[in-house]
Design goal:
- The chain has 151 residues and is an alpha+beta fold.
- The chain has one domain (11-136).
- Helix content is 13%, strand content 27%.
- It contains 1 helix and 6 strands; from the N terminus they run ββαββββ.
- It has a 4-stranded mixed sheet. Strands 3-4 form a two-stranded antiparallel sheet.
- The chain is elongated.
Length: 151
Amino acid sequence: MQRIYISGSIGYDEIMDFPNHFKDYFHPEKLHQINVSFAVDSLAKHLGGCATNIAYALRNTVDYYSRVIPSEEGIQSKIYNAKSSNYSLDSRLLTKGQSPFGRRGNDPSASSGQAIISPVGAVGKDGEQLIEFFKNNNIDTTHILQDKKLY
């Protein structure tokens, strides 16, 4: 059996459903003075992060090809938080809508001292997005490219 190792972040995405169009709330002549707040209909918490998304896509790809080209070997995959093996994830559960966390049901992002950037996003009616990030544990983001002027 071949093994694939995926390295990356594991976290949660909190997605809010905004039932309207964001463009209806922004005035082109006031873009330099943006101050908005939106009421949303729902908030959903989904497992996310780069490693988790890659594992999910890989799992879906393998499932697709295993239907086209049957194999005696299935795919068995686990994702482990680098901090501790206590926070194992079974990626097979990602496609079944079940909690992918191991026997304790713990959130790996809760590990003490771990660097976390928590995104919160709202998705509009046409798929447009507004994303906010909360930095905790004093994460240094000065190295991240920032646009000085968007328009």
